[in-house]
Amino acid sequence: MPVLDAHIVKGRRAFTVDVRLRLAQGARLALFGASGAGKSTVLSCLAGIENPDAGRIRFGDTVFFPPGLPLYRRPLAYLTQSDSLFPHLSVADNVCFGLRAHERNGARQWVEELKQRLELGPLWNESARRISGGQARRVALARMLARRPPLVLLDEPFTALDRPTIGELVDAILQWHRELGFTLIAVDHRADILEKLCTRAAAIEGGRVAQEGTWPELIAAPATPLLARLLSND
Hints:
By secondary structure, the chain is α/β, with parallel strands linked by helices. The chain contains nine helices and ten strands. 35% of the residues lie in helices and 25% in strands.
C-alpha cells in the first residue's frame, strides 16, 4: 500500500491541473517541468495552502482532502523559496517555533544535532533579521526538520543560493532522509539538483504527468519535445 495516495484536480487560468501520485514510505520523487506547468500547485494542495477542486489526498491513515484538513494538522513540512522566518525572534526560537511545549524536552537532543550539523551554533542567539540568505536557508531547514516530519515538500527552496551552499543543503537533506526515512517530493527547475535529491521524477506539462520514471529513463527517452529540451539544457 502506498503511504501517499493523491489525485489532485485544480483549475488554473490556462489549464486544469490533474495529477495522480502514489508513493511508498521513504520514496523521493521530483516534480520536473517548465515554469507554470502546475508543479507548485500540486505541492500547495498537498500542503493545505489551497484545496483541490476535486480528487482525494491521503497520507497513511490521515485524509488531507476531502474535506480540507488544516495545514497545522497535516504531518508534513513544507519549505518554499521564502524562508518565512520571524525577524523579531532569535535563530533558536525560529528553529523551535513549530514544536509544541510538550514536545520541546523530548526534541532537545535532536534540535542540538540540527544546530551542530547545520553550523547554527554561532548564530543561535542572533536575531533572524541579522543573518544572511544562506544562513536563513539553514535555519528554515532546521525548523522544517525539528518535528521529524514523515512527509517533506520542497518547492524550489534553493533559489538565489550559490552552488556550494546548495550542495551542502542537498547533502544535509539526504543524510537526514537516510536517518528519518521521510517521504520527499521536490520541485525545482534545475534537473541536476533534482537528480541528486530524488531517485524518480514525474515530468509535468500543462498540469498533467507527461512521463514518470527514473532519471536515466527520462534522459534516454524523453516523452515530449519540451522535456527533451529541458533535460538537454541542464
